[in-house]
């Protein structure tokens, strides 16, 4: 057989062995250690993680007036989901926006600035860019007031 035909046969055989799923190889040593996900599955997984984050955020909203400790834990978990979604697909705006919102709720102004700067890179309208600039300035002011600088 010719080499090209061998490669095609091996390719289709590997699809059969994996049940039709082809996954990317793990990240090279020294990187995050996470498995690299192909772009088609990454978007779906990022959307799923974002959705899970929104579910957690909804729970936080329902308890934040009556149970601050639980609300803060739910908030932390929502940020984690939004972060995971962003790691998989950095082009999605909503996980970044809601991570910014949740860090603002937690009064973690340093992280709020980080997330808002990421959001600023994804925004296109003048109003959205103005919102980002105002939030960054607000967080910077809060950070100065808490550190005494």
Beta strand %: under 5%
Count of alpha/pi helices: 6
Radius of gyration: 21 Å
Give the N-terminus to C-terminus distance in angstroms: 74 Å
Unreliable stretches:
1-33
Query: What is the overall silhouette?
Result: flat
Helix content: over 70%
Order of helices and strands: HHHHHH
**CATH top-level class:** Mainly Alpha
The CATH superfamily bears the name Tetratricopeptide repeat domain
| Sheet/helix structural class | mainly alpha
Query: Which architecture per CATH?
Result: Alpha Horseshoe
Mean pLDDT: 80
The largest β sheet comes out as: none
CATH topology: Serine Threonine Protein Phosphatase 5, Tetratricopeptide repeat
Number-wise, the strands total 0
Count up the domains. Answer: 1
Description:
Helix 2 packs antiparallel against helix 3, helix 3 runs antiparallel to helix 4 and helix 5 (109-122) packs antiparallel against helix 6. The protein is an all-alpha fold and 149 residues long. The chain is flat. It has a single domain (37-147), classed as Tetratricopeptide repeat domain (Serine Threonine Protein Phosphatase 5, Tetratricopeptide repeat, Alpha Horseshoe). It has helices at residues 3-17, 39-63, 68-88, 93-105, 109-122, 126-147.
């Amino acid at each position: 057989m010719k080499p090209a035909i061998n490669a095609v046969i091996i390719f289709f055989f590997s699809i059969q062995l994996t049940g039709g799923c082809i996954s990317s190889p793990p990240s090279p040593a020294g990187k995050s250690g996470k498995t690299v996900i192909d772009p088609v599955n990454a978007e779906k997984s990022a959307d799923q993680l974002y959705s899970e984050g929104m579910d957690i955020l909804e729970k936080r909203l329902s308890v934040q007036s009556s149970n601050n400790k639980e609300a803060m834990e739910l908030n932390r978990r929502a940020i984690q989901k939004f972060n995971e979604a962003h790691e998989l697909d950095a082009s999605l705006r909503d996980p970044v926006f809601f991570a910014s919102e949740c860090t603002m709720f937690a009064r973690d102004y340093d992280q709020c600035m980080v997330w808002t700067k990421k959001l600023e890179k994804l925004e296109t309208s003048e109003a959205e860019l103005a919102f980002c600039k105002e939030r960054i300035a607000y967080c910077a002011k809060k950070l100065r007031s808490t550190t005494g600088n």
